[in-house]
Amino acid sequence: MNPTQTTRKISPTGAQLFTEEITLEGHIIDSWALPKVFDAVMDLGGSFELLDIRVGRRKDEPSFARLKISAENEPQLDRIMTTLQDYGAVLVSQHDVRTEPAPANGVLPDDFYSTTHMPTQVRLGGKWVEVQNTEMDLIITVDQEQSAARMVPMAAVSKGDAVVVGYNGIRVIPPQRSRQHEIFSFMASDVSSERPKRRVIEELAREMRQTRERGGKILLVAGPAIVHSGAGPCLARMIRAGFVQVLFGGNAIATHDVESVLLGTSLGVTLRSGQSVEGGHRHHMFAINAIRKAGSLRQAVESGLLREGIMFECIKNNVDVVLSGSVRDDGPIPDVAQDMAEAQRRMREAVKGVDMALMIATMLHSIATGNMLPSSVKVVAVDINPAVVTKLADRGTFQALGLVTDAELFMRELADALGV
Amino acid sequence: MNPTQTTRKISPTGAQLFTEEITLEGHIIDSWALPKVFDAVMDLGGSFELLDIRVGRRKDEPSFARLKISAENEPQLDRIMTTLQDYGAVLVSQHDVRTEPAPANGVLPDDFYSTTHMPTQVRLGGKWVEVQNTEMDLIITVDQEQSAARMVPMAAVSKGDAVVVGYNGIRVIPPQRSRQHEIFSFMASDVSSERPKRRVIEELAREMRQTRERGGKILLVAGPAIVHSGAGPCLARMIRAGFVQVLFGGNAIATHDVESVLLGTSLGVTLRSGQSVEGGHRHHMFAINAIRKAGSLRQAVESGLLREGIMFECIKNNVDVVLSGSVRDDGPIPDVAQDMAEAQRRMREAVKGVDMALMIATMLHSIATGNMLPSSVKVVAVDINPAVVTKLADRGTFQALGLVTDAELFMRELADALGV
Amino acid sequence: MNPTQTTRKISPTGAQLFTEEITLEGHIIDSWALPKVFDAVMDLGGSFELLDIRVGRRKDEPSFARLKISAENEPQLDRIMTTLQDYGAVLVSQHDVRTEPAPANGVLPDDFYSTTHMPTQVRLGGKWVEVQNTEMDLIITVDQEQSAARMVPMAAVSKGDAVVVGYNGIRVIPPQRSRQHEIFSFMASDVSSERPKRRVIEELAREMRQTRERGGKILLVAGPAIVHSGAGPCLARMIRAGFVQVLFGGNAIATHDVESVLLGTSLGVTLRSGQSVEGGHRHHMFAINAIRKAGSLRQAVESGLLREGIMFECIKNNVDVVLSGSVRDDGPIPDVAQDMAEAQRRMREAVKGVDMALMIATMLHSIATGNMLPSSVKVVAVDINPAVVTKLADRGTFQALGLVTDAELFMRELADALGV
Amino acid sequence: MNPTQTTRKISPTGAQLFTEEITLEGHIIDSWALPKVFDAVMDLGGSFELLDIRVGRRKDEPSFARLKISAENEPQLDRIMTTLQDYGAVLVSQHDVRTEPAPANGVLPDDFYSTTHMPTQVRLGGKWVEVQNTEMDLIITVDQEQSAARMVPMAAVSKGDAVVVGYNGIRVIPPQRSRQHEIFSFMASDVSSERPKRRVIEELAREMRQTRERGGKILLVAGPAIVHSGAGPCLARMIRAGFVQVLFGGNAIATHDVESVLLGTSLGVTLRSGQSVEGGHRHHMFAINAIRKAGSLRQAVESGLLREGIMFECIKNNVDVVLSGSVRDDGPIPDVAQDMAEAQRRMREAVKGVDMALMIATMLHSIATGNMLPSSVKVVAVDINPAVVTKLADRGTFQALGLVTDAELFMRELADALGV
Question: Which of A40, B78, B200, D28 has a 20 to 30 A CA-CA distance from D331?
Answer without folding.
Answer: A40
